[in-house]
Amino acid sequence: MDIAELRAYGYFFLIVFLTVGLYAYIYHLYKNRKDADGNDYEEYGKLALNDDIADTPVNAVSKTEEK
User: Fold this and answer.
1) What is the mean pLDDT of the chain?
2) CB 33 within 8 A of CB 42
3) 3-state class (DSSP) for residue 16
4) Which residues pair with 40 in a beta bridge?
5) Is 40 in contact with 34 (CB distance < 8 Å)?
6) Neighbouring-strand partners of residue 34
7) Which residues 6+ apart lie within 8 Å of 43 measured at CB?
């Protein structure tokens, strides 16, 4: 086994490791969408698309103030 073959195996295992890590990170992000309070902050991404004055707000705010 020469150095070129060893580098090829190392490169292959590095790519496999990084691919598995990327998919695990993506799964982690979509599994834990909500924070501890139950807020889903992915809804705030719609603010850039729905920014007209007549659009419905992301979070509706009641007119009565809770004390």
Assistant:
1) 83
2) yes
3) helix
4) 34
5) yes
6) 40
7) 58
